Design the sequence.
């Protein structure tokens, strides 16, 4: 494949550090290193310098934090998205926003190819490449893990040492991690045995529940049209709000998950995640929906969570079907306004209050005491009609 210029999604980690050097050697053309800031809390200037030293002809550092949370995390939150009951899609949501900006930089710099560091076994290769294809089908796609002869990360470590490339991974501690404002994920290496408990010193965003404060923390989250807009009465931007909840949740040991998940490519993998702010927001969002959504609307919306979450996990963020689902979901959120009060305590996030001007819950309707809107006798016909088909089936069976 003839390539004139490549834009590489560059993180400065083991894989992309080796890839940058490998691309220069293999394709003998200019390589643009593109660093996306999605809240991974790293020294981006240091990563930029490393890219230059490793051979990058140009370097772009892009702040995507606000866009990431506003346009990707919050829409998924409105959908209550969760993959296989536990995973809040932190990496899945970050890949399309990263790839979208990569496409923009390719067009800006006149590049005819894009490259990523996702392995040939994982989900990220699909997420990156489906985004490229949806937004810029004219660009050539380079996936080094599917082209080179390296067998695993040990080979990459050896290559990096031969070429004087410093990497943050060693053979003694070879698990990999990926961070953004929504979460940190850990996989591979010592975590590949699903029976072994993750080492405590691995976690970054959260303290262990055992070491969390002995007193609970109360927090109030305000929603407008399904989006969180304020915490304890203080309005914040999307990225500020999530960052703040990450801090509070992390101190209280909220959001650790250890799962074996089904990858899109067909194999199971063990992943460990820290998602403190996202965990808090999903629980709060479910609570505010419980008093503001009509029953049938809620049940219809709930029936779509699995499909929506699969689309995000599989990499179909820019697909027409995800957009259609999002439009329907967003229509349900127009009444999802109000405040939820939560109690955070040693790894637990508990709803202890909710209120809304759009609330469909009214004590005078739900009370067991006397009221003027409900006649208990009406239930007789309701039950008889709903049980009629079962009554007829039983009569015919006995006959």
Sequence:
């Amino acid at each position: 494949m003839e390539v004139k210029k490549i834009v590489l999604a560059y993180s400065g980690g083991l894989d992309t550090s080796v890839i940058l050097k490998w691309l220069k050697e293999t394709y003998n053309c200019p390589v643009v290193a593109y660093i996306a800031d999605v809240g991974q809390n790293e020294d981006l200037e240091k990563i930029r310098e490393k890219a230059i030293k490793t051979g990058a002809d140009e370097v772009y550092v892009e702040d995507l934090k606000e866009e990431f949370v506003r346009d990707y995390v919050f829409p998924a939150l409105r959908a209550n998205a969760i993959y296989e009951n536990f995973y809040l899609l932190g990496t899945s949501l970050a890949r399309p926003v990263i790839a979208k900006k990569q496409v923009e930089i390719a067009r800006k710099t006149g590049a005819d190819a894009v490259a990523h560091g996702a392995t040939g076994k994982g989900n990220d290769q699909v997420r990156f490449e489906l985004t490229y294809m949806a937004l810029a089908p004219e660009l050539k796609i380079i996936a080094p893990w599917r082209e080179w002869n390296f067998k695993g990360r040990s080979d990459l470590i050896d290559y990096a040492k031969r070429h004087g490339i410093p990497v943050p991974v060693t053979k003694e501690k070879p698990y990999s991690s990926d961070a953004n404002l929504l979460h940190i994920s850990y996989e591979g290496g010592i975590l590949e045995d699903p029976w072994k408990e993750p080492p405590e010193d691995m976690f970054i965003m959260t303290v262990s529940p055992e070491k969390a404060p002995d007193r609970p923390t109360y927090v109030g989250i305000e929603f407008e049209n399904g989006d969180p807009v304020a915490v304890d009465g203080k309005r914040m931007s999307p990225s500020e709000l999530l960052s703040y909840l990450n801090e509070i949740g992390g101190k209280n040991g909220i959001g650790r998950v250890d799962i074996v998940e089904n990858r899109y490519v067909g194999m199971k993998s063990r992943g460990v995640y820290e998602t403190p702010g996202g965990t808090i927001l999903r629980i709060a969002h479910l609570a505010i929906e419980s008093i503001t959504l009509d029953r049938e609307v809620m049940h219809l919306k709930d029936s779509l969570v699995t499909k929506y979450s699969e689309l995000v996990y599989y990499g179909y963020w820019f697909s027409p079907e995800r957009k259609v689902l999002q439009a329907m979901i967003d229509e349900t959120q127009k009444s999802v306004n109000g405040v939820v009060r939560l109690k955070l305590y040693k790894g637990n996030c508990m709803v202890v209050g909710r209120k809304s001007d759009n609330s469909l819950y009214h004590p005078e309707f739900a009370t067991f005491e006397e009221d003027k809107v409900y006649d208990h006798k009406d239930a007789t016909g309701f039950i008889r009609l709903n049980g009629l088909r079962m009554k007829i089936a039983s009569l015919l069976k006995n006959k």
